[in-house]
Amino acid sequence: MSDTDKFDEHHNGEGDEPTRRDFIYIATAAAAAVGGGAFAWPLVSQMSAAGDTRAAGSIEIDLSKVSEGQQLKVLWRGKPVFVRYRTQKEIDEADAVDIETLRDPETDDARFVANPEGKINKHLLVMVGVCTHFGCIPVGEAGDFDGWYCPCHGSHYDTSGRIRKGPAPTNMVIPKYAYISDTVIKVG
Ligand code: FES
How far is the CA of 64 from the centre of ligand 1 (A)? Predict the structure, then answer.
């Protein structure tokens, strides 16, 4: 079963109902085509994608659209990508974790991509918003570690999207992305 199959299967279950209320949704033109066929999500606004990037399965996201404490959800290849503008408190919580205690050891810094100047912006966390257990969509600002909580079977992720408690085997995935300007990234 592919990841997409898992995502669709669980998305249609009652377990993901709380997630639909929690985020601002932004759909790319390419993603809207997928969403329209498989399920109906509320759409607040649309971002355009150039034809060549659509063809390659890539999307561009303007990070300047996200305010502190806010999360955007962008569809990419049929899956949600979360863009979370973390508060300083959330960053400090992520940095304070002893990675030796983690199921899937990974520093917070390792979950970011550097901009062209070689710097990472730890406020802006970009990750695939799919639980690594069976593919449900976790709820933000929830769970025992102030990050995300997956209501399907009770996985708790921290403010870096790392698995901390529950059945999920690994951290939520950081997609391949790159900065194409100071504020715009290309995912995929
Ligand atoms: S799918 Fe998230 S805990 Fe099972």
Answer: 31
Q: What is the mean pLDDT of residues 89-104?
A: 98
SS3 content of the chain, % helix, strand, coil (to 5): 25, 30, 45
Give 35 Cα–ligand 1 centroid separation in angstroms. 21
Among residues 168, 177, 171, 80, the alpha carbon closest in space to that of 124 is found at 177
Element (H, E) at 46: strand 45-47
Domains of the chain: 3-187 (2.102.10.10)
Instruction: Say how far apart CA 130 and CA 108 lie, in whole Å.
Output: 18
Q: How far is CA 91 from the centre of its chain?
A: 16
Q: What is the residue with the minimal CA distance to atom 3 of ligand 1?
A: 153
* 3 state SS of 60: strand
Tokens 């962008």 belong to 74
Give CA 97 to chain center in angstroms: 20
Percent of the chain with pLDDT over 70: 70
- Sign of the four-CA dihedral 12, 147, 156, 3: positive
In the annotation, is 10 catalytic? no
